[in-house]
Recover the amino acids of this structure.
DNA sequence: TTACTATGCTACACTTAGTGTAGGTCAACC
DNA sequence: GGTTGACCTACACTAAGTGTAGCATAGTAA
């Protein structure tokens, strides 16, 4: 059994984040010690790793919650899960395109500055 | 003189966003009509366009506020302004790299799914 | 015994960049 | 006279946590 601090260190979350995930329903409420401190089993640590894994792909907490429920529900939900991951991938691709376009705008602005032409006068 | 609705349409902000920017100090409090409605001059429209221009590069509102102050202060602040834009550019590049790395993680996960190997068992 | 430090607890406020909603005012139109 | 439509203010809400206040408890040092 691990304390929340140990769990946090093991998984790479902050303590606050773990409590946050519990509050959000991503985790079952943790067992408590006599001192009312949260205790985590190896299985719960694995679950946290799983959450970390999804979170690092940029998936939103609410979506992870849905996803977790599907995993619980078994392999029947596999096609649906694959779709979610694919959607997430598309979202990332779109984000990257958006950023790239922002970058182009910025380049243009930078160029304008180098030419000493400010976007708008000083009023 | 334009109403807030006209200004919003002209510039491409929502009405709420314009009020928000005023509240945040990006805009001087607008003049008011007899009916207490905000009124915008062409110069203020230009200022809004300028804000839009920076916002579209992903610059944060607080930073735009600083930037606006510098523009007001004249060409002496030009080098500093160029630096801000360059920093912003670097931030965008970093963001893009981050997203790309998320994408790689996702690809890996997707592959794992296609191989019918789920990241974590069903507990 | 007392003090200090570390760790944990809860509950609340704060962040970003707005959006959405409730409730009110006003002018124009039918 | 009633009803849009555009505007006003103030407040709550969003995502994903972080930071803080105030508390309890355990272990260690003087």
């Amino acid at each position: 059994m691990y304390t929340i601090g140990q769990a946090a260190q093991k998984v790479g979350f902050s303590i606050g984040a773990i409590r946050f995930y519990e509050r959000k329903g991503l985790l079952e409420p943790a067992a408590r010690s006599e001192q009312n401190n949260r205790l985590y089993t190896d299985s719960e640590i694995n679950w946290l790793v799983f959450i970390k894994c999804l979170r690092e792909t940029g998936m939103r907490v609410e979506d992870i919650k849905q996803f977790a429920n599907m995993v619980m529900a078994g392999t029947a939900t596999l096609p649906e899960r694959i779709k979610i991951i694919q959607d997430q991938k598309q979202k990332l691709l779109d984000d990257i395109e958006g950023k790239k376009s922002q970058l182009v705008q910025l380049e243009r602005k930078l160029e304008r500055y180098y030419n000493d032409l400010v976007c708008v006068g000083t009023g």
